[in-house]
Amino acid sequence: MTGIIIAVVVVLLIGLYILLYNNLVKARTYTQESWSQINVQLKRRNDLIPNLVSTVQGYASYEKSTFTKVVELRNQLVSATDKPQTTDAERAQTMALSDQLSGQLKSVFALSENYPDLKASAEFSKLMEELTNTENKIAYSRQLYNSSVASYNMKLQTFPSNLVASMTKFKAATYLEVPKEETKTPKVSFKKYEDL
């Protein structure tokens, strides 16, 4: 009788181990999949940029430095996303390039204010709308990735899955963070309004 009880306990422990291990694998896979969604959106943006640059260059040909920077950052991002980003450092570098490119794209969008013909161009408007939607999808994908990381990391830290995680060497994932420059509050001066 004691042998049967021991066998049942061993089977239950093995079953629990398998269940916990599989849940950790699922959580890690969801995290990896959510990172791939970011790459999909980055590729989409990278594919739209040449069309945007060629459309805007026709109207604002002397803004060459802005276009050069956009193309340079796009090419760096294409190189970064052509290979799998498996480490936190590679992912951070990819997102830093993406953030720089987003900033440069804002400069290109701002050019339309100086060029009424460009602003009225249907092709430019369509590209701006697609890029804006893509930027929103990138932001959503980043949120999804961080949510997946949170779920995965919780499993690594909570009992009893933390025991299985430590035995099988699962490692915590790192959150994507907003660059420090973007979290600073902009300084506003009211001096020019004081005389009113």
UniProtKB/TrEMBL annotation:
<protein>
    <submittedName>
        <fullName>LemA protein</fullName>
    </submittedName>
</protein>
<comment type="similarity">
    <text>Belongs to the LemA family.</text>
</comment>
<keyword id="KW-1133">Transmembrane helix</keyword>
<dbReference type="InterPro" id="IPR007156">
    <property type="entry name" value="MamQ_LemA"/>
</dbReference>
<feature type="transmembrane region" description="Helical">
    <location>
        <begin position="6"/>
        <end position="25"/>
    </location>
</feature>
<dbReference type="Pfam" id="PF04011">
    <property type="entry name" value="LemA"/>
</dbReference>
<keyword id="KW-0812">Transmembrane</keyword>
<dbReference type="InterPro" id="IPR023353">
    <property type="entry name" value="LemA-like_dom_sf"/>
</dbReference>
<dbReference type="GO" id="GO:0016020">
    <property type="term" value="C:membrane"/>
</dbReference>
<keyword id="KW-0472">Membrane</keyword>
